[in-house]
Batch of 2 targets.
Target 1
Amino acid sequence: MSPTAAKTALRVHHLRKTYKDVVAVDGLDLEVRQAECFGLLGPNGAGKTTTIEICEGLTAPDAGEVEVLGLRWDRDAAELRQRLGIQLQETQLSDKLTVIETIRLFRSFFRQGPEAPEVIALVELEEKSHSRVGNLSGGQKQRLALACALVGRPDFLFLDEPTTGLDPHARRQLWELIEQFKLAGRTILLTTHYMDEAERLCDRVAIMDHGKVIALGTPRELIKSVCADHMVEFSAGTRARPVDLAALAAIDSIREVRTENGSVRMQVTELHRAVPALIQELGRQAIPLTELRTHSATLEDVFVTLTGRHLRDE
Amino acid sequence: MNSNHPLAQLTLVRFREFTREPEALFWVFIFPILLAAGLGIAFRNRPADVLQIATVTPELAAPLAREKLLDVQQLSLADAETALRNGKVALVAEPGPGGAVVYRFDDTNPEGRTARMLADRALQRAAGRVDPLVSSDRLMREPGSRYIDFLIPGLLGMNLMGSAMWGIGFAIVDARRKKLIKRMVATPMPRQYYLLSFLLSRLVLLVLEVGVVLGFGALVFQVPVHGSLAGLAALCILSSLSFCALGLLIASRVQTIEAASGLMNAVMMPMWICSGVFFSAQRFPAAMQPLIKALPLTAVIDALRAMMLQGSSLAQLAPQVAILCGWLVVSFGLALKLFRWR
């Protein structure tokens, strides 16, 4: 293994995949370093799943190169399968098997790895060991799916939308598990359309849209590079008497102003100056303020700023 | 084999999925028994029916009463006519002009025609007729030649087809629909083990399925097995493998359970009708016979009947064995070519 390969867990070069006339992945380049948690963030249809399935060797690309752990799918598929842990979107494990039977089945495919009870303990399903999969809750099923990805003690973990469809409590539980694997020094590539998930779990994030990476960096860097620190949203005025937006944009600490569904979104550098200035300006225009919200800028705001759309619009 | 071997684990999963599905247990084990019992009772061999007839004079009633297969009543002419019209009697015998006899009956009714023959024979003999030819009857009611003996091999063949095709086809399409096949190929699992596990579990279940139907036939209806049990076992295994291959072919690309059900029924329905499960396939026109003979279920049932009822050996059944091998090789080859692992 070359020295650069040792530091890079995944290298994707000029990847392209077309389904009929839809370009799912459009000349994508990616690099995931060893022991980092890398997130592909984007709305549905951005090409995240196609990308991760090509990296997992389940889908053949039309063009481009993929190197995982210094190995290639065309030459080293058998070795790669042993070293990767994979969780797919929407897999329904057999309802009639118990948790431990399912884990034993998956464990039997790998040459090494922890024993079934140990894996079950890792995902905190000990009490459900002998329950049928059909009787598990959504969060428990998702943890079982994660366990199936861990049975071979993988060097590289691929998680495709691990918390989609879960309630907030189950999501937080799963996040804690994924954080433990990060601490254990595993490399993780995950896809998500939840910006809070990417911010919490990922060391670096690639924001994808229409099959391309439109921004790459740590969540902090991305937020800094694209937006100011804070976001202010308010509702005021009517169709007949709209707010004079140009006057707002002229205020010193207010950066970008845009309207959205009748409310106004502004990027703001210094909240303690911008809010009084906003209220003063609305007073001058004699328009009453009906609603005011502020929050620290998030990856969602980055996506909105870059594309003009929300992550979950589609 | 080590129980942690992937093939052992995959096969265990097949058994667990099967035994934890009560409906599957019903269709494979209970249904064929209910069917055999029901049909066995409905078509049981009964002693020949005694036919009800009427006459209007004591002179005719006396000789007719001597015929054991006729039950004679003496009625007035009006009552006799009513009884005939209502179907209470199959025939009315009345004196005609000049010592002759007149039979009234519906010649489109088989009972009427039989009653006519029996009544006429009884009256002719009473009048002094002597039959020139001596004849005697030998009744065929022993095991091996009844309808139930014909039926059990048919049901066995139908069961072999149904359980193999549904067992494999349904399980594979269901796993594909749930993206479970895709998940499996994302592991280092050797793909041939996945398919092999279906065949292994099928062969074990086969022993039970065949045992249940044959055991029921033997215990309740004394249906014989004249051929060798080893030959019968080999024939059942070959049949099951051929139907497994056909099931695999049907399931090779289908994505939904509905589409799979439709295809399965489209393939199996013609065989249920044409292959001689319930009645002889010879009843279909001669032009259709080569086609019917080429169907796998026809080959299976013909071979099973020959083996069980006539004691034929596997070697004597070479044409049927060749047909089954042909279906096995062609279906399996095509299935492997078309199979979609996702």
Target 2
Amino acid sequence: MKQIIAIVEDDAHQRQHYAEALRGADYEVIEYVDRQSAIDGFEALMPDLAILDIMLGEEVGGGFEVCRYLKQKDAQFPIIFLTSRGDELDQIYGLQLGAWDYQTKPVSLDYLITRIRSLFQIKRATSASTDSNSHSSNLLQLGDITLNESSMAVHWKKQPVNLTPTEYDILHALLNAPTGISIEDLVKATRQGVVEDNTINTHILHIRKKFKQVDTGFACIKTRYGFGYSWVC
Amino acid sequence: MQIIAFSSLFLLALPWLGYRYMDEMKEFLVKGQGDAQLLAAQAIASVLHNRSDLFDVSAVPSSALVEESSLYVYPLDAGIVVDGYGSDWESLLSQKKQFGPESLVYDRTAGAASPISFGLLLGEHNRYLYGLISVTDRTVVYRHPGYARLDSSDQARIELINPQGETRRYSILAEAPGDASVYQMDADWARPTTGKPIYALHAVWQDKSHGYDIEFRLPIKWLNHDKQLMISIADVNSSTERKVDAVVATLSADNTGYLNKLITRSPELDRIIKGLSYTNATVCIVDQYRRVRAVLANAASQSELCSLTDKVAADMVAKAIAGESNVHRTADDTNEVLVIASHPVYQGTEIIGAVLVEKNSRNILAQQRSSLYKIIVATAIVFTAALIGLLLFSSLLAYRIRKLQREVSGAIDPDGRLITDVIAASKYAGDEVGELSRGFSLLLSQLKSYTGFLESVPRTLRHEILNPLNTISMTLQKLSTAQGNDAKLVDSARNALRQLELIVHSLTEAAHIEDALAQDEKTSFDFAELLTEYISNIQLKHPHSVFTYSGPASGITLQGSDLRITQMLDKLKDNAIDFATAGTAIDFQLHVDNKQQTMLSICNKGPLIPDELILHLCNGISSSRQGTSGEPHLGIGLYVASRIAKHHHGSLRIFNTDDKHGVCVLVQLPALNA
């Protein structure tokens, strides 16, 4: 059975491109133009994943409303936000909408499909891990940190750190570069379209915050001014 | 305005407070006056101390006799016209002393005849003793010339002791109303000693409804030192029988053999207290028998001090004679306060009299009224002046604010476009309006720079966006006509897209830099350490450029966001790389000046910036310089950098080097320590 992906995007051309690309990747796609029609549609049929544009027509935060609605229905529902700028990342965090993924416009269709695949993979892995802990072969261990490469789960000092896929990618890239990694390489790792230092900086900030929630003394990510970041633990 | 009006109401309390203050002051003054009067009384008492001679305390058998036998002689302001009419005595009539049956010394009919009585007033003026005798007698029997005995008609008798110690008796009788005859009489009052009338004792007889009045005058020198004198009235009721039925005297039958003592005000005491001249006060001196010995009356006050009706004074005299000083205050209905002070006079340890000093508070009240008037006038003047001042000030203020308002509203045209960024009104004023004006100017100039940025965006963007669009358009044309290499064409289109993305990105960055800066967390970090690390890192990143650094390796702490400072350095570094002449170094210099300001200069050798552009470089999209990187160059980088510097309470300045070989950017940031 094909997995159903809902796209809520007010721009018809963009929506059509996403839909075609996803259908080409063998997903079933339902398209919505605005918040109300999306919510009405979800009442009838819940998709498996939703791609939300934040600005829907006149509603500046329409995407957030749809997200809230979906979260009420299913707290674990996977959502990918399409944001037009890095600042909105802060807004997403500020609204505490949960650990979902974000894709800044312009969107690379290939990368969007990769993301969707990994989200479904995580979903499967999460539900599988409740059955058994048999994925130890994909574990990456470095000091106090443990990365499960198949379920994208991260543990710091045996405590889970709930990262988004983008944040996971950044952390993964950091851990794989013992001498530090430049912003440019991090951009490549997240497959972001444009060199946008602040987006990376924001992600790093959020990663640090999440680690500090489980360990207030966390200081393993060091800023290398004029270069990038390095993992120093 | 309402608040000002309301609060100025409190000013109205000031006159009330003044009035309250004056009231207190009056109270204080009256009390002070009381104390002063007591002191005056003490002073007068001290003068009289041990001067029993002044009190004329002759030996008397009993104080009861002294009391009874005393006849007051009132000092008269002017001589009395001896005419038998009591009109001259008007002011003293109330002091008239009455003698009736209780002082009956002879009664032939044993009460059968109608009783007689008389009133007596004695006065003294200019060495004469004056007297007014008002006799109540139902039947007046005049003298009949046919009778040789003089005790055959109604008459007044005066018995006195002359300076030689001899007793003299005089009868005053009349044949008809008018001048009376006076004879010196023998011991039994029957016959005259000489038969010759005495003219030195002048008397006039007048009929009255109640009987008759006799007014008389005699020289005081007739009296001895003790001024002993007795007056009696002999009553004859039958004009046929002509026998004396009764005699009423000024001394009762119990004291037969004695004479009354005339109490005159002591002239010596009067002289003494006059010498003390306690102005505007009434002074009264009494002896131990409560007899008034001297009064210094205050002409202004119709004082009744020491008069018979003066109960307060009587009480105070009693207390003073008992050895107690006193101050008494009474308020009358005109709000005047009457203050009486009393003090005893001593002879050794014995009290021989008392001094009373009375004064009213009229001059205090007058003082109070004049002060009140002055306060009212002063308050009115101050209020008027303050009101006029406030009105002038507020009008001036209102005028200035209106002018400022006109100018500010005129600074923007109806379409919202900025016409000027200079507000001239109150530009140099040091007050709040001046600050407001300067604030507006600053606001408008910031607005102008921002609108300048916004207005320049479409112009510059058109140029910058058209290039990549053109590339894409051409690529698409080629693709549609299947010319050339597909992969190469797609690459070219991708590059054009990337350029467009960069433009949008930098625009977004510039548009949101303020919001983003406000959200940043501020920390303390070592700027020198950051800079050294930064330079070594960018050297790796840009191997074809040369970066030099001179300055400390650590120890300059800044407050703010290290990532933003790095972002600013990136912009400045990119700018310097763009315009540096190939092969020349980009020089970073860092130091802290004596005002705790961190100064960072980033200099590159290369083309100069035209002077007219320098001012606008940091205002946004304005650069027309052609960079070497091939990336869009909108000058946005400098705009973002200057915003970051400003956000860190610093500034950013661009200038051509003095040797005209390059351009420097000077960043000034306040340091926490150095």
